[in-house]
Amino acid sequence: MRRESYRDRALVVRTYAFGEADRIIVLLTRNHGIKRGVAKGVRRAKSRFGSRLQPFVDIDVQMYPGRNLESITGADTVAFYGAGIIDDYERYTAACVALESAERLASAEGQEDPWLFDHLSETLARLQRTSDPVLELDSFLLQAMGHAGWAPSLFNCAQCSAAGPHHAFHPAIGGACCLNCRPPGSAEVPEQSLRLMWFLAHAHWPAAFELAHSAEGPQLAAAAHRMTRAHLQWHLEQKIISLTVMDQV
User: Fold this and answer.
1) How many domains in the chain?
2) Which domain holds residue 21?
3) Contact status, residue 32 vs residue 8, Cβ threshold 8 Å
4) Three-state DSSP class for residue 92
5) CB neighbour list of residue 212: distance below 8 Å, 6 or more residues apart
6) Is residue 103 classed as helix, strand or coil in its secondary structure?
7) Residues ≥6 apart with Cβ < 8 Å to 244
8) Which of 104, 201, 209, 224 could form a disulfide with 193 if both were Cys (CB 3.0 to 4.6 A apart)?
9) Are 23 and 53 in contact (CB under 8 A)?
10) 75 or 219: which carries more pLDDT confidence?
């Protein structure tokens, strides 16, 4: 059966060298999910489109299906999000976590997920100009986990549904937990941190910014970030490498 080339919108998630002059490009496409393609000759100085195949670039890409990898035969830049990101370490690390998490949260390879593509694009655009990169990242992660079916319970007890607010959180049972249900190792978490997570999960930005910039805002936001990343890594069952880099900020 003859395979035909196709075009799609894509965000470059990561790249790595392949052979002497080629590069493997990992893409989150809008209509074909995660795709891995070979871009031949892009490491040469005279490459036609090598500069477009970098993280933080939104491209219109042409691909030809292969047995194991696609072949990338063309790419046009739609948007470059790196301008306001790569020169700021906190924005850069937050954006790297968003890209890596999106790859891990994506459905099976080749399965379309326009919502994830659009949401990641919007997050990268916001990260270019935000003064709160970690809040933007946590909002993206909480909404993406909700989209994947892993939304943490932030008010009712995740185990018995007892009405909150509660003051403990454990990703193994799904989020907030009451005194009767909290397992060993549960984290003590301020009620207002769970409230902040709810605002971020539902993109209620005025309320989120007001709470995050209150007198106790930095402590509340730090606790919310710890809970968000713990919940993410528990459900992924693997570490997000970019989070380790982010810890060095």
Assistant:
1) 2
2) 6-82
3) yes
4) helix
5) 132, 135, 196, 218, 220, 221
6) helix
7) none
8) 224
9) yes
10) 219
Chain length of the chain: 249
Question: Element (H or E) spanning 182, and its range?
Answer: none
Residues 139 and 231 in one domain: yes
Task: Give the tokens for residue 181.
Answer: 């249900």
Residue corresponding to tokens 């209150």: 214
Which 3 state secondary structure label does DSSP give 90? Answer: helix
More confident residue, 21 or 188: 188
For 18, 67, 222, the CA distances from 178, given in Å and listed in that order, are 51, 51, 22
Structure token digits, residue 65: 């299906």
Report how far residue 110's alpha carbon sits from residue 227's, in angstroms, rounded to the nearest whole number.
31
Residue with tokens 């893409």: 27
In single-letter form, the type of residue at position 58 comes to D
User: For residue 54, what is the domain's CATH number?
Assistant: 2.40.50.140
Instruction: Give 166's DSSP letter.
Output: -
CA atoms within 13 A on the CB side of 92: 9
pLDDT digits (tens, 9 = 90+) for 8-36: 999 999 888 777 778 888 999 999 889 88
